[in-house]
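Re: the request from the purification team.
They wanted to know what the chain is likely to look like in 3D before they choose a buffer screen. I agreed to run a prediction and write the result into the notebook, where they can find it.
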Amino acid sequence: MQPKFYLPILVFVAFCVQPLNAQQLLAKHNPKMDVNLSPGTNGVINPIKNSKINPMFNWNLNPVKTSNLNPAENTAINPLNNPDFNPNENQHLNPMYQNVLHPKNPMWKGLYLYDKEDNLVGYITKATQDVMLCFDLDSQWCGFYVIK
């Protein structure tokens, strides 16, 4: 085989292997494989069994009861008033402008979002210390969280 035939084969193999890099669910991030990550088996991380992490019982975590956590009452954390926390206004936080924030990027580092039955339902990217981006299972950007 001549060397000029190796390049198309190499390119084909690279395209076949590339999708394996993004969104690979490791066992250490899967609550079905590591029961310590599952609220169904680990009561410490289950808000129904642990009132310390349940906003219904711990008002320090409840934005309805604590005005510092409520963006309607605290303009410092309201993304409508503060473009530093709003990916729609700030291109540095917007995954449509910053590809490294997007879960389909092979270099993506982020968190996995599960439902109460331990099924993967999405991805979370920490854009800054104060903003986390949320993606659905199809890697479509669906919202963001402000952490303060």
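For the purification team: The longest strand covers residues 120-126.
Please add any questions underneath this entry.
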